[in-house]
Each structure stands twice: as structure tokens, then as C-alpha cells.
């Protein structure tokens, strides 16, 4: 790995699926996880940046850690807009990791031969802010869970989708189009280039309005001579396995970041 870079390390978060948080001088500059779209997906899938423009900027700027500058200099995206997307990606990744479950974490030093995150937040996000926002979002998911909305559902539009009438309803319309009973909220988030938290929020609203239906979970598997494994009916189906208490998860994340300064 080479000699570590002073003040720069990553926190490898173990879970299902877990993720990686990059820290510089005590500030979070990047967070990624397979559970939610990163900045690249948010830019390209949403149509903010074309795939061609991204590839050209990446080829020219990524090797010199200038991807953000290349995107802005080429007029592909504004500097302020790019920072908003990068911030959103970090907050959404921390939320998604905690929502799906954090089992453990391990800080690792960064050496000169390690590849830095392509679109870091500059100068970075205070760990306390990230922890508070993660707690707030996890608390809100408890309300959604009462509607049956979890990261594992596969919602279906209740009736055929009509052409959109109001531009402000674009995201709601797009979610209804993608909700075909096969896609999870994560799948929809990646397809639309939107954050997982935002998509779950809109799905919850659409469910409460009767515009989306949540299919029942698949039946338990049949094992050994047709013996059916029956789960406790009192337990809500398809809930993520995570440590109890949303504030505890956020404190764990904050404590790990503090220890890695």
C-alpha cells in the first residue's frame, strides 16, 4: 500500500451490503455503498450529465484527481450543482448502510498508491452532521414501516399510468412507471438516478394515497418432505436486520469516524 497519507483514511463498513466512507482531516469526503446510487449514477441516470460527457471528463481528469474540475470546465454541470449531488450521495449512502444494517467497521489507512474517491465533497462533512442526519432519516423510516414500506418491497402501480399533468410531479410519475412489482426501492433509485431516501419517501406517499400496492412477501421455502418454515406472524415481513435503535446506529457511525481521526 505504501506510506499512509497523513489525515486521510477510509472506514470500511461491514454489513449487508455495507460500504466505504472516506475521511480527510476528520471530515467525511465520500461514502459509497451498493445499497444506493453514488454521485456518478445520480448525475448520469437523472440526465444531469450525459454518459458521453462523463466518459470524456473521466478519461481526462480522473487520473489527476480532476474529475470534478473537468465536468465543470466542460460545462457538463455547474460547480454548485455538482457539490449538491456529491453531498446528497454521501448522506444517502450513510442512510442506506445504516438502514440495511451495520455489523462492524474497520478503519484503514490510505497510501499513495490507493485510488482516491473520484468526486469528493470539499472540504468535507462534519461527522456530527452526518450522524444527526442519519438518525433523523432512520427515525422517519419507522413511520414508513407502519405502512409496510421497507427497502425490500416490490411495489406495483394500482392502475395504468396516465400522462403527467404537472411538471412538479415528475418523480412521482417516474416511480409509478418503474413500480412494476419486480423492482425494489433500490432498483427504482438506481434506474431514476435518485437517492434511496427520496425514493422511499415518495413510495410511502404513493402507498398512503392508494396509488401503489405492496405485494405480500413470497411464501416461505419448502424444505425436506414439504415441511414449511413458518416465521413469527407478529414480526413485520421483510425488515432489514440492523441494530435496534436508530440513534445507536448513528452514534456508532460517529464514534467510528472520531476514532479514525
Kindly describe this structure.
The protein is of the alpha+beta class. Helix content is 43%, strand content 15%. The chain is built from nine helices and nine strands. Strands 4-1-2-3-5 form a five-stranded antiparallel sheet. Strands 6-7 form a two-stranded antiparallel sheet. Strands 8-9 form a two-stranded antiparallel sheet. Helix 4 packs across helix 5. The protein starts with 7 loop residues before the first strand and ends with a helix. The relative contact order is 0.18. Mean pLDDT is 81; it is low at 1-5, 223-249 and 255-261.
Ordered list of secondary-structure elements with their pairings:
Elements (H helix, E strand, L loop, with lengths): L7 E8 L3 E6 L2 E6 L6 H7 L5 H11 L5 H7 L5 H22 L1 E8 L15 E2 H20 L8 E3 L12 H9 L6 H8 L3 H13 L3 E3 L7 E2 L3 E2 L17 H14 L2
Antiparallel strand pairs: 1-2, 1-4, 2-3, 3-5, 6-7, 8-9
Amino acid at each position: 500500500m505504501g506510506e499512509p497519507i497523513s489525515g486521510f483514511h477510509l472506514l470500511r463498513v461491514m454489513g449487508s451490503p455495507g460500504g466505504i466512507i472516506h475521511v480527510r482531516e476528520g471530515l467525511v469526503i465520500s461514502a459509497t455503498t451498493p445499497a444506493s446510487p453514488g454521485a456518478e449514477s445520480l448525475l448520469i441516470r437523472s440526465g444531469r450529465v450525459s454518459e458521453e460527457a462523463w466518459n470524456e471528463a473521466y478519461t481526462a481528469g480522473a487520473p489527476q484527481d480532476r474529475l470534478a474540475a473537468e465536468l465543470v470546465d466542460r460545462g457538463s454541470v455547474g460547480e454548485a450543482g455538482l457539490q449538491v449531488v456529491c453531498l446528497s450521495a454521501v448522506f444517502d449512502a450513510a442512510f442506506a448502510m445504516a438502514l440495511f444494517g451495520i455489523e462492524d467497521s474497520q478503519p484503514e489507512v490510505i497510501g499513495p498508491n490507493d485510488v482516491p474517491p473520484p468526486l469528493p465533497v470539499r472540504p468535507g462533512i462534519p461527522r456530527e452532521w452526518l450522524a444527526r442526519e442519519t438518525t433523523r432519516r432512520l427515525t422517519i423510516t419507522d413511520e414508513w414501516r407502519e405502512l409496510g414500506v421497507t427497502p425490500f418491497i416490490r411495489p406495483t402501480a394500482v392502475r395504468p399510468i396516465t400522462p403527467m399533468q404537472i411538471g412538479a410531479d415528475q418523480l412521482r410519475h417516474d416511480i409509478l412507471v418503474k413500480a412494476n412489482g419486480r423492482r425494489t426501492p433500490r432498483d427504482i433509485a438506481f434506474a431514476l438516478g435518485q437517492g434511496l431516501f427520496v425514493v422511499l419517501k415518495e413510495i410511502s406517499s404513493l402507498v398512503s394515497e392508494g396509488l401503489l400496492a405492496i405485494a405480500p412477501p413470497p411464501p416461505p421455502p419448502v424444505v425436506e418432505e414439504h415441511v414449511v418454515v413458518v416465521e413469527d406472524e407478529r414480526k413485520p415481513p421483510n425488515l432489514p436486520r440492523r441494530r435496534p435503535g436508530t440513534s445507536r446506529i448513528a452514534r456508532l457511525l460517529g464514534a467510528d469516524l472520531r476514532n479514525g481521526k
